[in-house]
Amino acid sequence: MRITKKIRRSLATVLLTAGLAYPACAAVCPKGIGGCTSPGRCSLFADADGNSLCDYTTRSGSSSTTGSDPFQSTTQSAPGSAVTSTTAPVTSSATQDPATGTGITDLLSSSAVMVGILLFVILSGVLYIVFRRGIMGVQVKEAGPAGALSVLIALGVSLMAACTLAPDTIPAMSCALLYAGAGTLLTAYLWYAGVMSRKIVLTVAALSTLTGFVLLAPLMPLEFAVLVSTLSGASALSGAVGGIGALVLLTIVFGRTFCGHLCPVGSLQELAHAVPGKKIDYGRTGWTEYIRLAVFAIAIIATFFLVDLMEYTGLYQLFSLTLTAGFFVGLGLVLVSVFCYRPVCRIICPFGVLFSLMAQFSHFRLQRNESCISCKKCEKACPTHVAGEHDSKRECYLCGRCTDACRVNDAIRYRR
To answer: What is the pLDDT of residue 110?
Structure first.
């Protein structure tokens, strides 16, 4: 438990130092910016100087004075807020007893980048051989697609390993955005090559879900308030917001590859819905999109009142394994996903509005060709009812059910 807490705090510290998460806290802190009652439990909390104070307080318009003692910090919050002062010693792992094993940890942390690169190279090679030979039940005969799939999985694993070994030096947000960006391109290529089977989709979903639990960033739809505050001018553009914006724009070209395969929230729901059992069909009506549009509008309005509406979904508490009321709300959404296909993506996530709008005009999408015999098996298999020949693909999450159900080989292809 202590190790998990240390990792989470270290990742938050890196985000603060990199300046990636500060605009979000300054604009949408639901705790009142300076009156936080639960430091360490907020997804935007960071403590770079080790004094147990939320470091965003002084950077968001509050005044701060620091005495001659470098280990003591006194923070004066905004008018009407309480003055908080605390002193805590800064401990260094170099001074701890080598018998505890911290020396090995420090050694690994100092060379985490090299360890990650070495792991990436070795794992890519091993997986390439595995996929070419079909050792684990997934065979990719062509060299290019086999290499792309190997690189995708090896990239996710190596990034998680590097961030775990050196949480103080490798920003988790940067690793997550690298995985999401590269994964979007790689999965699009795998679809274009015609090798993205349902089994591979679930494999990638498992990997992306794991990155969500390890990296905790970016967790859609929790980043929506950050994007709104930036676009409205309430906070400066950050690397995280730029990366998220790029992912949305990539949807115009490749469709909803990020939603379908790289988003941890969407991937967890995909895995949950794959659990056998009776499913509840939303039907062909667009009522889910209307509700999501309403949530989209309310989330924007709430942002201007310094409230992140998506915080109440409990998704951060779920992925950070924080046992609070929010954790059980997030867990409940996952349980609903077992019976209903992607309820967060289709009803709650405000990013779903942006991604669906871009996917409406995407250059690459799943299409039928002249080999189609109109058996309609793909339409029956599609959980969002968008597999029809003339249906819009804005709600296509590239789950692979239609291609697996198709009776004619390559009758449905991912093409421009």
So the answer is: 63
